[in-house]
Specification:
- The chain is α+β, with helices and mostly antiparallel strands and 333 residues long.
- The protein has helices at residues 35-43, 61-72, 76-79, 105-111, 147-156, 185-197, 212-221, 241-248, 290-299, 306-310, and strands at 2-7, 15-16, 20-22, 25-27, 48-53, 58-60, 81-83, 90-95, 99-103, 118-122, 128-129, 134-140, 144-146, 161-164, 170-177, 201-209, 226-230, 252-256, 267-271, 274-278.
- Helix content is 26%, strand content 29%.
- A hairpin with a 6-residue loop joins strand 7 (81-83) and strand 8.
Length: 333
């Protein structure tokens, strides 16, 4: 593609690079100049314009973005997304419903290395999505790019993104009470909102004493496809009340602790064929925390392994929260 000043006499078919006012109207950038436009420019005193002129073998921005989008998402319905109509070299990929973004990161990185003018930007891997949320945006930066580069980029990114919808339909929450402990109302509301945002029903809610026997009995009776535990006192060890109760009920604990803050004190296990999530105290707040990362993946059938959770530390939130101002602020060495 050639870019720069073009005499009006040679500008027919060129792409206007910058908007220009001519009389009482405005020629917008991106306009493919026709004889009528050139006459208006001449009448307004212009001898030349800044324009882009595609070379043989180039493909215009909208067509390029559409072709790349079709490669990335060949079946939008199956991928749980919809594609916007191309505009100014851009196609947006939007989630059809609640779920988790699943990306072929290596393929997308390779696509972005083909030509700096051919780009895709996405949410992070496993980002929780809501209906209408933007999963990715494809943008052709220049007015035209070599068609062979689009074909190369498309070949690297076949079906490289999708949104996994929830594979379960309900959750159960069990809360432990401690005399003089926190009011559970806020925590219950925050967890109910999280479940609802994922398109699930809160099938069961139980409050039990904060002891191994009461919690184990409650877990065995709890309804829902996923079990969540919110304790009145933070779980401090893998042998603390909540993990011990999961084992006492016949279940297992696969991971205690995660390198995500807020969210360190989460644990993950299973009981009677369903996942059990021991929630950290920060789950009482609606603010994003490590429990959101785990819950959204579990309900979408992408339960994280111990290694997956260990890998969440880099980029692991590290956010201060209003109820715990500057907890990490100690004396400098």
């Amino acid at each position: 593609m050639k870019f720069g000043p073009v005499a009006l006499a040679a500008a027919e078919g060129a792409i206007l690079a910058h908007s220009v006012r001519v009389g009482d109207r405005r020629l917008r950038k991106g306009t493919v100049l026709e004889a009528e436009d050139l006459a208006a420019l001449h009448a307004a005193g212009h001898d030349e314009v800044i324009a882009a002129r595609p070379d043989a073998g180039d493909i215009l921005e909208d067509a390029a973005a559409a072709r790349l989008a079709d490669a990335l998402v060949p079946d939008p319905a199956a991928a749980g997304v919809r594609l916007s109509v191309p505009f100014t070299g851009r196609v947006n990929v939007l989630s059809e419903g609640a779920g988790v973004a699943v990306l072929d990161v290596d393929a997308l990185q390779t696509l972005n290395r083909v030509n700096p003018m051919i780009t895709i930007a996405t949410v992070p891997q496993y980002q929780q999505m809501a209906a209408g949320g933007m999963v990715a945006t494809i943008k052709i930066i220049s007015y035209a790019v070599p068609e062979e580069d689009i074909e190369k980029a498309a070949s690297h990114a076949q079906a490289a993104l999708r949104v996994m919808a929830p594979v379960v339909r309900s959750a159960g929450l069990i809360v432990t009470n401690i005399p003089g402990g926190p009011d559970n109302t806020k925590g219950i509301r925050a967890m109910t909102d999280r479940v609802t945002a994922l398109g699930l029903d809160m099938a069961d809610l139980r409050e039990v004493p904060h002891d191994v026997t009461g919690l184990a009995d409650g877990l065995q009776a709890l309804g829902g496809d996923v079990a969540m535990i919110l304790t009145g006192s933070a779980t401090s060890d893998i042998d603390d009340v909540a993990p011990a109760a999961v084992r006492a009920a016949g279940g297992h604990v696969d991971r205690f602790g995660m390198p995500v803050d807020p969210g360190n004190l989460l644990f993950l296990g299973g009981l009677a064929g369903r996942s059990v999530i021991g929630l950290p105290g920060c789950a009482r707040s609606p603010a994003l925390n490590g429990a959101d990362w785990v819950l959204s993946r579990v309900v979408c059938g992408l339960e994280p392994s111990a290694d997956d959770i260990a890998g969440m530390g880099v980029g692991g939130l590290l956010k201060e929260i209003p109820t715990r101002p500057q907890p990490r602020a100690g004396r400098s060495r």
